Amino acid sequence: MASKILHIDASALGERSESRRLSSDFIQRWSALNPEDEVIRRDIVDNPLPHMDGFTLGSMMTPTAERTSEQQTAANLAEELIQEFLDADVLVLGVPMYNLGIPSTLKSWIDHISVAGRTFEYTANGPRGLAGDKQVYILSTRGGIYGDNNPLDHQVGYMKTIFGFLGISEIHTIQAEGLNISPENREQSIAAAHAQIQKTLDTAAA
Length: 206
Ligand SMILES: Cc1cc2nc3c(=O)[nH]c(=O)nc-3n(C[C@H](O)[C@H](O)[C@H](O)COP(=O)(O)O)c2cc1C
Description:
The protein is of the alpha/beta class. 42% of the residues lie in helices and 20% in strands. The chain has helices spanning 18-33, 54-61, 69-87, 104-113, 156-165, 183-205; strands spanning 4-9, 38-43, 90-96, 120-123, 126-129, 135-141, 170-176. The strands form two sheets. Strands 2-1-3-6-7 form a five-stranded parallel beta sheet, sandwiched between helices. It has a two-stranded antiparallel sheet with strand order 4-5. It starts with a strand and ends with a helix. The structure holds flavin mononucleotide (FMN).
């Protein structure tokens, strides 16, 4: 059966972005293997989302009949993002590290889709994710080298935590690290990440 692939990029560097190149390579290889799949593109840099400020949150919480047209527009966007996320079978995200975390544009997307009663719920035994049946592929780039489980890493560590919170257990990470350390390191790391994409897809297909 054809799957829906949601492809999100968050780097502000446009055509110079390595995470965009990695996520695009992933999508091309995936589509070659699964030509019937539908790819939905959401570029949250070209089309930025509002921050989860008082107006956006208030719009979502106001009953439909009582919303102004501006509030309805904000609520419609929130609903579109949640539904798009819930409908996706596979998420592919290009995620650069910004100041030890993720770009604020991506945080805005997460703030829109993490909604109690829709993508997670509170139970007597604690929160429970409602968006479990998905695969996530994170194409991560960063200037320094952090490795795995580094307490300084609030980028990949956070992405894994939030998707886990939403109920998703199948999360794959492909890293290009140390991109700003030296040109040699950059070249090697990027080449290794592209090779890792193929390995990951081969393993998924096996
Ligand atoms: C605003 C900004 C903040 C950054 N903060 C960090 C950081 O905290 N740690 C790090 O290792 N690299 C940091 N970098 C470097 C980027 O992670 C690196 O250049 C990466 O390649 C960016 O991904 P991109 O090529 O897809 O844009 C930062 C870059 C920018 C533009």
